[in-house]
Amino acid sequence: MSFYNVYEKLKDQPFHTWFNEVTTTDVEKVLRKDRLTESDYLTLLSPAAEGYIEEMAQKAHRVTLQHFGYTMQLFLPLYVSDYCVNTCKYCSFSVDNVFPRRRLTMEEVEEEAQAIAAMGIEQIIILSGESRIHSSVDYLTKILKVLKKYFSSVGLEVQPMDREDYEKLVGSGIDALTVFQETYDENIYRALHTKGPKRFYNYRLDTPERGCQAGMRSVTIGALLGLNDWRKESYIAGLHGHYLQDKYLETEIGMSFPRVQPNAGSFQPEVHVTDKNMVQAMLAFRLFLPRAGIIVSTRETPQLRDQLIPLGVTKMSASSSTEVGGYAQPEETQSQFEISDERSVEEIRQLLHKKGYQPVMKDWQIV
Ligand code: SF4
């Protein structure tokens, strides 16, 4: 059994009709319920639910407090390599884009770690372009040895790997995995990823599950909103989260809602996903899976991020750089995408305190 079996049953369903048949009475009924079914989740993603964002927000706030209290985890991404063998048109690191590529040496990793640690950050995610050669298990293990001196939790967002590789990395101290399916629509996925190992839809789809099986403490998934109908993508991503949460009780499942951002290519999103659309997707997910983490990055504007804090978010990045070596030597290389919120870690901490939230810098210690 794989999530693909769930997807297969859904892929040819008339989502457009389903969403448009939902009435305001249906939405009101769902909002009175404590536990939501898959069909209730679909209801909250419908156009009819757009008029109930405020009610959804209030309920999402209450539900989040029950499970997480007034806390917010803070983390930073650490880009270690921009070598990539794939050709995603929506990303600056695509192998088709020509720019001087870079991979950090261990000395440079140490410099980056010191710059990040000086901001008070204790949780990081290692990011790279997808290349088994440049971001090999061996290279990542060496990096981890350096990072363990500075951080209490180190996650991974690199190319999908086999379970055995994840097991090795978990054994070395990696505790979290992030992998976005980009789009759950198999046809759009294949059209967007024509070359490189990323073209294998099923291997990517099963990656979060391999991470759970390998013993990752937390696994974060998501769809890149803007590549397809955001309601359908959010729905299937939510069911994927549900599938993982039900099957791997010991793993914390998280969801991210990234939207296509300006990048080095000329790619334009297929669908314009507004702030309101993104908020609706997030609120519906929170009400469907109250225990799941919700992660918001600095892709979003400061104004939006401020508003999202009480609506279900459990983890935020702050003062991020999306370029390799971007903390110790900013603006020397190509960034993966543009960020919108450039406020410092200290500014975000103060903002959280002002809103009554406790910034959580550490909830785990690498063994
Ligand atoms: S999205 Fe990932 S796989 Fe695609 S080009 Fe960018 S770094 Fe490479």
Plain-language structure description:
This protein is an alpha/beta fold and 367 residues long. The chain has a single domain (3-360), classed as TIM Barrel. 40% of the residues lie in helices and 12% in strands. It contains 15 helices and 9 strands. The chain has helices spanning 3-10, 15-21, 24-31, 38-44, 53-68, 106-117, 137-147, 163-172, 186-192, 201-205, 207-213, 230-247, 275-288, 302-308, 345-354; strands spanning 71-81, 123-128, 153-157, 176-178, 218-222, 252-256, 293-296, 315-317, 358-360. An 8-stranded parallel beta barrel has the order 1-2-3-4-5-6-7-8, surrounded by 4 helices. Helix 1 runs antiparallel to helix 12, helix 4 (38-44) packs antiparallel against helix 13 and helix 12 (230-247) runs parallel beside helix 13 (275-288). The protein is globular and about 60 Å long. The two termini are 32 Å apart. 48% of the residues are buried. The mean pLDDT is 95. It binds iron/sulfur cluster (SF4). Its cofactor is [4Fe-4S] cluster. Keywords: 4Fe-4S, Iron, Iron-sulfur, Metal-binding, S-adenosyl-L-methionine. This is 2-iminoacetate synthase ThiH. InterPro entries: Aldolase_TIM (IPR013785), BATS_dom (IPR010722), rSAM (IPR007197), rSAM_sf (IPR058240), ThiH (IPR012726), ThiH/NoCL/HydG-like (IPR034428). It comes from Halobacillus naozhouensis.
Highlighted features:
single chain, 367 residues, alpha/beta, TIM Barrel, eight-stranded parallel barrel, binds iron/sulfur cluster
Considering DSSP H and I runs of 4 or more, what fraction of the residues is helical?
40-55%
Determine the number of helices (DSSP H or I, runs of at least 4 residues): 15
User: What letter string, H or E per element, gives the SSE order?
Assistant: HHHHHEHEHEHEHHHEHEHEHEHE
**Main beta-sheet strand count, sense and barrel state:** 8 strands, parallel, barrel
Distance between the termini: 32 Å
CATH H-level name... which superfamily? Aldolase class I
What is the CATH topology descriptor? Answer: TIM Barrel
Q: Which secondary-structure class do the elements indicate? A: alpha/beta
> In the residues, how many domains can be counted?
1
Mean pLDDT: 95
Beta content? 5-15%
Small molecules in complex: iron/sulfur cluster
Reported CATH architecture: Alpha-Beta Barrel
How many strands in all?
9
Highest-level CATH class: Alpha Beta
| CA radius of gyration | 20 Å
Instruction: Pick out the low-confidence regions.
Output: none
Strand order of the largest sheet: 1-2-3-4-5-6-7-8
Described by the principal axes of the CA atoms, the overall outline is globular
